[in-house]
């Protein structure tokens, strides 16, 4: 399966994550206090709050809008001038003979990045909402586990990108 083909699978995953996120936010809406803790210190103690409507809309935006912006960026690469696409050895990989495959790979990779971001925000919203509903500190072990998993995912995507857009063969 190519990255472009798996990108279509990623898009389907993202389409599943959106209604799950909407259900999550709807379920928590009436359970959350009027003032929702939105930032937590190193020990998990809340140290900044927002009105419920703003907090829920902000988290829903991060969970839905940002991943779709990544998808849009992946699609826009095919119409952008070559000088606006930043990959190693751009002139080689975006040569007309390789351009379609290279941009399809980038689009697929950005599709998976959007799934990773939406998943991270789904779990982060759950942790934040749970802390608010229970009026307890944010659970830091699951938070740091989520952070390590997400950063490992991002790092692996960067490594895959460097591997894909390696030094071109000598002419």
Any overview of this molecule?
The chain has 171 residues and is mainly α. It has five helices and two strands, in the order αββαααα. It has helices at residues 3-29, 52-76, 90-93, 99-134, 140-164; strands spanning 35-40, 46-51. Strands 1-2 form a two-stranded antiparallel sheet. A hairpin with a 5-residue loop joins strand 1 (35-40) and strand 2. Helix 1 packs antiparallel against helix 2 (52-76), helix 1 packs parallel to helix 4 (99-134) and helix 4 (99-134) packs antiparallel against helix 5. It starts with a helix and ends in a 7-residue tail after the last helix. The model has no long low-confidence stretch (mean pLDDT 92).
């Amino acid at each position: 399966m190519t990255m472009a083909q798996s990108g279509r699978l990623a898009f389907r995953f993202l389409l599943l994550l959106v209604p799950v996120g909407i259900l999550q936010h709807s379920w928590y809406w009436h359970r959350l206090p009027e003032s929702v803790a939105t930032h937590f210190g190193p020990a998990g103690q809340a140290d900044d709050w927002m009105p419920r409507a703003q907090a829920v809309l902000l988290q829903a935006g991060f969970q839905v809008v940002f991943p779709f912006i990544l998808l849009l960026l992946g699609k826009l690469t095919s119409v952008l001038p070559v000088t606006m696409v930043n990959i190693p050895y751009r002139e080689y990989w975006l040569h007309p003979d390789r351009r379609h495959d290279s941009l399809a790979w980038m689009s697929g990779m950005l599709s998976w990045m959007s799934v990773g971001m939406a998943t991270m925000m789904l779990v982060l919203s759950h942790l934040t909402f749970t802390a608010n509903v229970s009026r307890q500190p944010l659970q830091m072990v699951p938070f740091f586990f989520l952070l390590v998993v997400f950063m490992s995912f991002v790092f692996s995507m960067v490594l895959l990108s460097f591997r894909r857009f390696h030094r071109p063969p000598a002419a």
